[in-house]
Design goal:
The chain is of the alpha+beta class. The protein contains 3 helices and 4 strands. Helices cover about 35% and strands about 30% of the residues. Strands 1-2-3-4 form a 4-stranded antiparallel sheet. A hairpin with a 6-residue loop joins strand 1 and strand 2.
Length: about 150
């Protein structure tokens, strides 16, 4: 029930932490609508009502996203990964964890491939991870465009 409540939650709040942009290059990305400055950008979102938050680091080189390191972390600083399902005793929550993890892995590769957050498709039963990913990447893109 805990994870189900979190999945239904849509939180778009956040605060940035470090910005390591060197400001060297500013080019139009593949969508043709946004300019991204080269650099390494790091953010941490605010915890949602369940205590989950994201940490992300994105590298932009020649105006393109070249690397994304993104993690979902719970209120006890446990990283949402292959072992996270052990937090829940119920089979349905374990399955939900597996689905969200599958989605989380695909969102990073989709984003790097398309260079466009709007083209990152949510995977069925993994919308919670999609919401968390898009929240974090919107914060990163906001920093990289300024």
């Amino acid at each position: 029930m805990l994870l189900t409540a979190v999945i239904c939650l849509v939180t778009f709040a956040g605060c940035g932490t470090k910005d390591k942009s060197d400001g060297k290059s500013q080019q139009t990305n593949s969508s043709g609508t946004s300019k991204l400055k080269d650099g390494d950008y790091e953010i941490q979102t605010k915890p949602d009502v369940e205590g989950y938050f994201s940490k992300a680091k994105v590298t932009i080189k020649d105006g393109k996203i070249t690397n994304v390191d993104w993690k979902i972390i719970d209120s006890q600083n446990r990283v949402f990964d292959e072992k996270y399902e052990d937090v829940f005793p119920q089979a349905e929550y374990k399955e939900q964890c597996r689905n969200d993890l599958k989605g989380a892995k695909s969102y990073v590769s989709q984003f790097i491939e398309t260079q466009d957050l709007s083209k990152v498709d949510a995977i069925a039963a993994a919308t919670w991870a999609n919401t968390k990913f898009k929240e974090a990447m919107e914060m990163i893109l906001g920093k990289a465009k300024n």
